Fold this protein.
Amino acid sequence: MDALPQPRLSRRDLLRGIAIASGVIAVPGLLAACSTDEKSGSGVTVTQSDGPIDLLTVALPASISTLDVSKSAGIANLTVALLVQEALVTVAADGTLAPGLAESWTRPDATTYVYKIRPDVRFSDGTLLTVDDVIASIEQHSVKGSTSAFAYAYTNVVSVTQTGDRELTITLSAPDSLFSWALSPGTLQVTSRAFLEQNAGSIGTPATKILGTGPYAIAEFVPDSHVTLQRNDGWWSEAPKAAQVRIEFVSDETTRLIAMRQNSFDLATSVPFDQLEQWSGLEGVDVQTASDNSVVALAFNTAKAPWNDKHVRAAVAHSIDRAAIVKSVLRTHGEVAATLPTRQQWGGVLDPGAVDELYQRIPQFDFDLDAAGNELAQSSVPNGFSDTVTYPNSGPQIGKALLSLAENVKKIGITLEVEEVSLEQWIADLGKHEAGISLGWYFATTGDPAEYTQQLLNADNAGVNGTNIADYRNDAVTDLLRRERLETDPAARGQLLSEALVLAAADVPYQPLWWGEGATAFGPVVGTSTYSPYFYIGPWATQVFARA
């Protein structure tokens, strides 16, 4: 019986995690047992204390209306839920899979996964975690007809059975190259069977909340306002420093800056890069930035006129100045995206040299208004047309990029209205596939290049509620991706993914814009020494300490 392979990333810098908001902390009575002194990227010396944190308050730049991520899988929802609920495996700072609720796991063959559950783990209500609870948590996504936001990750599951006192065995209908990641926090949050059955239809609401085995439990939830969490003193791992966490939903970037200046918050995530100097200039504030393995891309609805015309898609792709946006809007805290997967996601599949070679082969639609005009002239709408594109209020930098695009396409005869909407509305609208042009903003929850490639290009994921928001259907691309899912050899997987990306790019279903970075501001009384691209894919508040 072989140990389950641990996908590994080769990374330039492990600096930061997913772009989400975090919080504030009011810390009376800190103990001054100093342990380490570190110089942050913003020049602030951070000295760790072993003292407690009474209250950690966090400013999240987006609001949520449900705690149940199976209903709304936005990054803001995950930021809250992953303090409460855990997965079988977790994602380490270097992008590898690491033990979670499962202390070990094996793969006896290409379609069988066996997990050994930790002993004596309890939910925050005091009940013991059982294998049956894990089975119930998986089955809410894997049962036929599931409407869960994570159902796509479990389509190959044939059975989930208990095969020992603490042993769980999952059998697939066919090999699935990404399935080992399905049991990680991005697509699994374990709760109890009794809780699921007793609260069906009301989970995630202020009255019912959510239940998990994690370091915190929900004390109060006011949709679109705030959520308060209480430390779970029965958590199986090392207790977090913060006794309470209060996450407030503050979408206005200027309001968050003023609040941090007034010490109203100790931690704020998604610091806008055009305000980075102001945030970094706040006394005692440590602003940490890092790649967040995100990709921002225009998505063209290939099933809807006039976007079903490749010339229209190419015209708009040529009309956005990606390099200028990275420089002026992101202040170089990002990189022009050559394709969908980031360079850092290929570890264990392609070496860096092969990645560079691949990205040179992928067709690019660089900024060129003359080329844009020529493409439109060859299209079904040579005189232009009008449409609307939306972006989430948690991404002001995206709004600025889209406004720049709108100005450029106006020069070739296209009128593009840009509208800001709430994060949850934006996510819901993406699932409908009704818009002609959409904005995709994705954060990797795995260290594998197939995550973005399969979700966005495989025709099996097209259609309403599918992750393929361009409704892109290319038989040759889909054949390559179906073969990739069945493949277990890393080199063969890399070749199949490469061919699919090159072939799809020529059809322009998406125009990748940039691979992002995120910035989190830690106020004068808190800090962390473990900031990485996966910082928020797990119980992130346990990694926040009090400063001496």
About this structure: The first helix runs from residue 75 to 81. Confidence is low (pLDDT under 50) at residues 1-39. The first strand starts at residue 2 and ends at 3. The two ends are 48 Å apart (CA to CA).
